Amino acid sequence: MQKLIIQGGVPLNGEVVISGAKNAALPLLCAALLTQDTLKITNVPMLQDINTMLALLRQMGTRVDATPPMVELCADSLIHLVAPYEMVKTMRAAILVLGPLLARAGEAEISLPGGCAIGMRPVDQHIKGLQAMGAEIAIRHGYIHAVAKKLHGARIVFDIVTVTGTENLMMAACIADGVTVLENSAREPEVVDLAECLIKMGAKIRGHGTDVITVEGVAALHGAEHAVMPDRIETGTYLAAVAAAGGNVTLTHARADTLDAVLDKLTEAGAAITRSTGTIGIAMNTRPKAVNLKTAPYPAFPTDMQAQFIALNAIASGTGIVTETIFENRFMHVQEMLRLGAKIDVEGNTAIVHGVERLTGATVMATDLRASACLVIAGLVAEGETIVDRIYHLDRGYEKIEQKLTGIGARIERI
Ligand code: EPU
After folding, report:
1. Which of 190, 222, 176, 248 is nearest to 26 (CA)?
2. What is the 396 CA–ligand 1 centroid distance (Å)?
3. pLDDT tens-digit profile of 22-53?
4. Which residues have CB under 6 Å of ligand 1?
5. Is residue 121 left, alpha or beta, with left meaning phi > 0 and alpha meaning psi from -120 to 50?
6. What is each CA distance from 145 to 109, 110, 116, 121, 378, in whole angstroms?
7. I want to staple 372 with a disulfide (CB 3.0 to 4.6 A). Which of 129, 194, 342, 394 is the partner?
């Protein structure tokens, strides 16, 4: 199994080029299922989750021509309307094929994802919405069996804000009969990116980026070309790394407008942030100050940045209170941080992080994607050597992470 070995204590200086967003690219690839024509997606990050999604789409009969970072997909004949357990268990985003398949082919069989390292993560809101649009859905042998001769428009009020739930129903509604109104929708930039691509494909969508999205169904969508937005979580992760390790780094191909809550917290922690079109600069010359934060749906502080800020607070001056409101079990990194000398108490959904002067290197184990990012940041600031085990989690979401970190002076290698 591959590991990362990090020699800590080196400030980070230079430039990092940000990749396309994993969580935007995954639904964009699924949008190809909505049309017989070719969909060309550019700026696709080459990650394990993307490979899994492409394998799933291929297995359904989609022709995939991948010339990284460009992927062309043509789903002119769908032959196998199934997402098997083996794929869904490694990548929950496979649920995103449910809406498009049902809308276009009238049928889909998707494995239920089950729980995962960060929480229960049910898909009841996806199911409830599709049922309101006329689908008949049964759960048998661990699979969602869904059929619908033709989906119809409906008014759907989500019980909770769900990103992939909003994306699934928005895609399905594009070629349903009549008008669908999605209330309490997710406002995440990745939802907006998907809506913009669907509009290029001929969809009639308005309200994306607000919590009420209205979709007027059309008979069919056509081919288009779309560039995946920059990854705001990858961007935030490098920013948090510089804020923790010190230094001066410029991130290019980045979008500051998708990161307001994170940039505000970094400023509060003492970092000097500069923004210009496509670029974010960060300079950090002092020990960070601890910050309090609470995760919540966009535009509030993202749950996908919580773990990285635990690492930042761990070496900050003062105490930072971090509250996680999206997932019920997203503090798995805390136990590993304690092995590096961090002082953190967890009470329910709150982590109280008492900053220490220094962390000391140790062997730690990654438990999920963002937890891994937290441990890498901790390794960059810890005294001596940190070994991060089980880094396949990192490869699901961070393109060329050790090359990018080495490029800004980090001493990190994969073995
Ligand atoms: N939820 C339900 N029922 C549903 C759907 C969601 O109860 O039908 C709950 C979840 O259990 C969770 C909350 O609602 O407690 C929000 O979950 P959401 O559906 O928004 O999460 P998701 O769509 O499965 C996406 C990202 C996650 C990110 C979350 C929250 C993708 C592919 N994944 O997941 O990304 O944490 O939104 O922003 O877009 C990651 O990249 O590391 C990652 C986990």
Report:
1. 190
2. 16
3. 999 999 999 999 999 999 999 999 999 999 99
4. 23, 26, 92-93, 119-126, 160, 162-165, 303-304, 326-327, 369-370, 397
5. left
6. 5, 7, 22, 19, 44
7. 394
